[in-house]
Design a protein that fits this description.
3 helices, alpha+beta, 4-stranded antiparallel sheet
Length: about 120
């Protein structure tokens, strides 16, 4: 009985460690990234914008909701007036009428990107 409990405890701890490691993979962007013209963007509600650039994935977070992503079917990303540029600070997302400043830009993995995109559908 003791052996079974020990094994279950080890399995549970391994699961928590894996989940914690997955969270650590979401690191804040350290340097600016120039996106190609064909990057893909998907919104998750009005609080996050997910960006796919080939094999690179990013999540932009906003303070509260961002009306530019909530009502616009297409958005433009820029930093300091330079189109298709993601930076740790001063990145803006613009729609037809509104724009919002990103609070944070975080690298995410493909699984997290796809999870958010699936939930939005």
């Amino acid at each position: 009985m003791f052996k079974l409990k020990s094994t279950l405890l080890l399995v549970a701890l391994a699961g928590f460690a894996t989940a914690a490691h997955a969270r650590q993979d979401n690191e804040k962007l350290a340097d600016c990234v120039d996106l190609p013209a064909d990057y893909q963007a998907a919104r998750f509600g009005s609080q996050y914008l997910l960006v796919k650039d080939g094999d690179n994935y990013y999540r932009l977070g906003f303070n509260g909701s961002c009306s530019a992503i909530a009502v616009s079917p297409a958005v433009k990303i820029s930093t300091d007036g330079q189109a298709n540029r993601l930076c740790p600070r001063d990145t803006k997302v613009s729609g037809k009428r509104d724009s919002c400043s990103a609070r944070e830009v975080v690298r995410v993995d493909q699984d997290e990107y796809e999870k958010y995109v699936r939930r939005q559908r």
